[in-house]
Design goal:
alpha+beta, BirA Bifunctional Protein, domain 2, seven-stranded mixed β-sheet, 18 helices, 23 strands, binds adenosine-5'-triphosphate
Length: about 525
């Protein structure tokens, strides 16, 4: 099936099974704003737990914070967001659709990359076991030609970005004949910069009111609390502050479901280090964060690092963790070496000394910072895209059957166990509820008695519940139940007394944590 179709199905699935709804749907929705339903909120909370524990619980020198969304407006002046938090936008004059100029060019690069991938697939087919991918990439003329196109475009694009040369960016779009997907034409306006921050008024009267911003990143809340945390926690360098919270960006184009939203959530950690050691820490956090992604078991080949063409004004190194979504490799997380830019700016704008006294050196300095920044919603989309699966099965009498199954990593699944009485009588529902009562303090359980057992299994597969337990007449005699495993569909008979232990082991976050580097 085409990847685009899979993505459409995934979006429909998210709605049908209570994961994600369009915000304000009964009023025809609000662009790029979404609500999480009864299952979505559980998955989201589990993703946040996975991140929070891996940062705060597993690192002695990382602590948490929950700062307010509204902050003093000067913070955004100091951070550079008022003047420079821009995206280059361009309109197609025929379709009247608006695009991010940089994204149009990145998509063009991705097209060349796809051509290379196709060559590799063909080569692998042709040469079978003898296929040497590294050699093929170095020698195949069509691969080399496409790689050359990528390199040339990359260079031109990053030069234009670094020089903030908007005319050149437009010229690239024209030269590469990048067309609007709606109108199919190359009839573009000039490229303009657009500030992504939302603002509102704080205070009761128009005259006395102050313009405040909805934060476009959670990081600044950490920087302005650096001294508070360092002093009250008696923190020694290196140490980190982690925070999960909402962020808001008035995105120009927001068409990829929860990939790009105007209201979203970030999980960010700022790690404060001694100047000169930041690039070592940058490498270390790159490795740590990649291992966090890979531990979920979605396939190591589906991840890659992407080094930034243009460094943000505050960074001396930056890399993205990209995941292979159904619409291609895209950023899920950014890892940035932010130097001492932010703390120095806040020192200057606030007039307060923001430094660290290094007892070993006997001197004070402004720490350097390495940041890891991941969107909860993009991570959610990654988990859903990796887990969604349509399977062909051998049905009864050799007939073909299909099932949709969400192969969610068990610790992340919204419901861990569905308990089903075989029939709605003979005391089976009471027994099922008894089992739920004995487990509900440990994990999320669901009681399900409607429809045939087969239909109930399918429903739980589609929601991603890793275990189903069926209570039948034998249960009343010998206290055993049938447990069915979502991924293998295998069933086994097990004593009720052993159930909790077995499930707890499979859904445990500890197992995931033990895989982390
Ligand atoms: P992009 O280039 O896709 O706009 P970015 O480089 O501006 O992203 P960062 O500022 O590095 O993103 O933000 C860190 C993380 O926050 C991103 O990796 C992403 O997971 C998440 N994020 C950023 N913008 C959005 C958004 N509009 N919707 C959802 N998640 C977002």
């Amino acid at each position: 099936m085409a990847q685009e179709d899979i993505f459409k199905k995934l979006v429909a699935h998210c709605k049908e099974y209570g994961y994600v709804f369009q915000s304000s749907e009964i009023y025809d929705g609000l662009g790029a704003v979404y609500d999480y339903g009864q299952n979505g909120v559980e998955l989201k909370n589990n993703i946040k737990k996975y991140w929070w524990d891996s940062m705060v619980k597993l690192h002695e020198n990382v602590v948490g914070l929950d700062s307010a969304i509204f902050m003093h407006p000067t913070i955004w002046k100091a951070s550079g967001h008022v003047d420079a938090f821009n995206d280059p936008l361009v309109d197609n004059k025929d379709s009247k659709k608006r695009y991010r100029a940089d994204v149009l060019i990145e998509d063009q690069i991705a097209k060349f990359e796809t051509k290379i991938e196709k060559e590799v697939t063909k080569g692998a087919k042709r040469f079978g076991e003898a296929f040497d991918k590294a050699e093929f990439l170095k020698t195949n003329p069509r691969v080399l030609a496409n790689q050359e196109k990528i390199d040339v475009l990359h260079k031109r694009f990053s030069d234009a970005l670094n020089a903030n040369d908007l005319e050149e960016i437009r010229q690239i779009i024209i030269d590469y004949k990048i067309v609007c997907p709606i109108s199919g034409t190359c009839n573009w306006t000039d490229v303009r910069q657009f500030n992504l921050m939302f603002s509102t008024e704080m205070g009761s009267t128009a005259e006395g009111a102050n313009t405040v911003y909805l934060r476009p990143e959670t990081a600044q809340g950490i920087f302005v609390n650096y001294l508070n945390v360092q002093k009250t926690g008696r923190m020694k360098l290196p140490f980190g502050i982690a925070q999960i919270g909402k962020a808001f960006r008035n995105e120009i184009v927001a068409r990829q479901f929860i990939f790009r939203m105007r209201e979203f959530e970030q999980m960010e950690m700022q790690f404060f280090v001694k100047p000169g050691t930041e690039l070592d820490w940058f490498d270390k956090w790159k490795e740590t964060r990649m291992s966090w992604h890979k531990a979920l078991g979605f396939g190591d080949d589906n991840y890659r690092f992407h080094v930034h063409e243009k460094l943000a004004h505050y960074a001396n190194a930056a890399v993205d963790v990209e995941y292979r979504f159904p619409f291609g490799f895209k950023e899920v997380e950014g890892i940035h070496s932010r130097t001492d830019f932010d703390l120095k700016q806040h020192q200057e704008y606030s007039g307060k000394k923001i430094q660290y006294f290094d007892p070993e050196l006997g001197e004070s300095y402004v720490p350097y910072v390495v940041e890891t920044s991941i969107g909860v919603d993009r991570m959610f989309l990654q988990v859903m895209a990796a887990s969604y699966c349509e399977e062909e099965l051998e049905g009864a009498n050799g007939k073909k059957d299909t099932r949709v199954v969400l192969r969610l990593p068990a610790p992340l699944a919204p419901t861990k166990l569905a308990v089903m009485p075989l029939v709605k009588k003979d005391g089976l529902p009471d027994k099922a509820r008894e089992i739920i009562d004995s487990m509900k303090f440990d994990f999320n359980c669901q009681y399900d008695e409607k429809d045939s057992i087969g239909k109930r299994y399918r429903r739980q597969d589609a929601v991603g519940t890793p275990f189903c337990v069926t209570v039948d007449h034998q249960t009343l005699e010998d206290n055993t139940v049938t447990i069915r495993h979502r991924d293998t569909m295998e069933q086994e008979r097990i004593e009720i007394s052993k159930l909790k232990h077995m499930i707890a082991d499979e859904i445990s976050f500890t197992k995931l944590y033990s895989k982390l580097k």
